[in-house]
Amino acid sequence: MSSSITSVLQENRVFEPADSIKASAAVSGMDAYNALCQQARDNPDAFWGERARELLSWSKPFTRVLDESNAPFFKWFDDGELNASYNCLDRHIGTANENKAAIIFEADDGAVTRVTYKELLAKVSQFANALKAQGVKKGDCVIIYMPMTIEGVVAMQACARIGATHSVVFGGFSAHALHDRIQDIGAVAVVTSNYQMRGGKELPLKSIVDEALSMGGCEKVQSVIVYQRTQTAVNMVAGRDHFMAEVMAAQSTECAPEMVNAEHPLFVLYTSGSTGKPKGVQHATGGYLLWAAQTMKWTFDLKDSDVFWCTADIGWITGHTYVAYGPLAAGATQIVFEGVPTFPNAGRFWQMIEKHGCTIFYTAPTAIRSLIKAADSDESVHPKNWNLSSLRILGSVGEPINPEAWMWYYRHIGAERCPIVDTFWQTETGGHMITPLPGATPMVPGSCTLPLPGIEAAIVDESGNDVANGAGGILVVKRPWPSMIRTIWGDPDRFVKSYFPEELKGYYLAGDGAVRSEDRGYFRITGRIDDVLNVSGHRMGTMEIESSLVAKTDLVAEAAVVGRPDDVSGEAIVAFVVLKRPVPTGDEANAIAKELRKWVGQDIGPIAKPKEIRFGENLPKTRSGKIMRRLLRAIAKDEEITQDTSTLENPHILSQLSQKH
Ligand code: WTA
To answer: pTM for the complete prediction?
Structure first.
């Protein structure tokens, strides 16, 4: 994103938080923020221990806060016991929250269903009992492949209730991707839905589960539980498959929560890395839930009367922390939305904010950019058509927000009244890391500003030495924090190598580049420093897409994938492909590009489809055979090649690869 990075670096507009927010904020003013940071630095154990006692209910109190004896396999609160579902639900019963709406669900077609905390607890308990009746026990793993529905949240909470570790797979992933995850985690059950509704279309889920299970190696799966989202019938395998409503009907609405050790794995969520297959990021119950609850209070300044809406899908980390766990742990009323921002038209988000009186709205820059585009070309979907005065706080997540999009969000959605929290974090960090606090931090468009109290983020060089403000470097976190990744499921060596490389002095390596401003020391994320792309806020490994392309063995000899800046999706996927036949041109090239795109869509999922495919008789390589990715990135951007190409073995293919398909 070179153009927007340049504009971010030159950004000098500053926006102070509104007094109305500051007056009642959990962290009010920079002095309060600095005091919390100081407390955390002076005595981290006291700081974190106090937070954990204040925000969570423990069935067995912990006596130890951080155990660093086996670093980087850190343990938090590890002689304490608790249950995540108890902390999200039971805790509110008998309080003013008992009959408060926990979820306001809006379906794709606009139908609204509300559940109170009491009702949600009953549903979760019933489904937890149903899982137990299916033989799912504490320590087992359950795959959840569900749409955005109340039932999706129920499935996650029910697993937590019985001490089963869940792994949610985004409903847009293919049978192949689902199969790999079922196998890697050794799931004993799969919870799915017959279909999902998105943008007026009925899309299959259950049949994809059937396909995944038929690929072999998933013999541990004893049962498949199917939520009937629509009336359309699906194939049910006798003995293995059961309808959710049927298995729940027979069960009590009470289920004693299974207390677990604070380090018990609450969930594993797969995410893309720079090499090999996706990594199963493992999170622990106590530390994760603590940070989910704490960031609801600090970053979103959550009040009892708020109506919180995070638009992320439960298939991603944002949907875990800020849909399935954080809002419930904090006793919030939240909106859960099944559909897409552009159906029935691109005014859907604004219409829903008005309809439900949303006060805190949290979405991704990609969504904002696509809605700006829509509003620019069609007045009828411009946010000015709706009353957005209920909004207090806006949030952004998942990718850098360019200052232009930030300004539009600030003006047209927040009416220059609502602070924007640009939250930098990752699947591995469990919750927010660097973000403005709405009642404290002066905002600079395009900057995620400062780390949260207790988060020792820094920018270092390749040997782990701090760099000066203004000089870019590698983003690291110097001290452990409670919601950090515990390991990569089944691959502790890869965990250490990926996140705690020796040369970085034991710091956590985020995988992003960053720079701090000279005046305020504000952080700006400049993008991934590895081979991970960020397409519409979704992480994709270039290697995964390359492996998928070369798996099309009848056609493809070699492939290299790079990212190119894109106005809407942030980055777009560009693939360079060498075929096992002469370089195609014209219609033939278009037909093959179409076939390859379709293949990747089927193999990984539609989000991995290359936007552009270019063919050549070879890839640009050095004399030692290394692919020159920097050159490919330049070609993908249609830049003139000014780089030195003297080490290139085969310079003539550069012009060939400049042809788009
Ligand atoms: C990027 C999503 C700039 C970053 C929560 C990170 C961001 C990756 C921001 C993690 C932000 C996330 N500004 N970049 N506010 N938030 N990123 O694991 O590159 O899906 O490493 O977690 O998204 O993506 P993930």
So the answer is: 0.95
